[in-house]
Design goal:
alpha+beta, four-stranded antiparallel sheet, 1 helix
């Protein structure tokens, strides 16, 4: 499964990555560990951050 990193992260490795299907997040410094999340939770987070 593909992971997406914010384009604002640049070449830094200290960011949160989001799985392409929006079902998990992970710390780019520890890519072997991920946190499962619901798609609704991701949408809600993105909506709140965009305000």
């Amino acid at each position: 499964m593909e992971w997406r990193k914010s384009s604002r992260s640049g070449s830094a490795s200290n960011c949160v990555e989001l799985r392409q299907d929006l079902s998990a997040v992970r710390d780019s410094k520890r890519p072997g560990v991920s946190l499962p999340v619901s798609r609704d939770a991701v949408r809600e987070l993105i909506t709140k951050l965009a305000r």
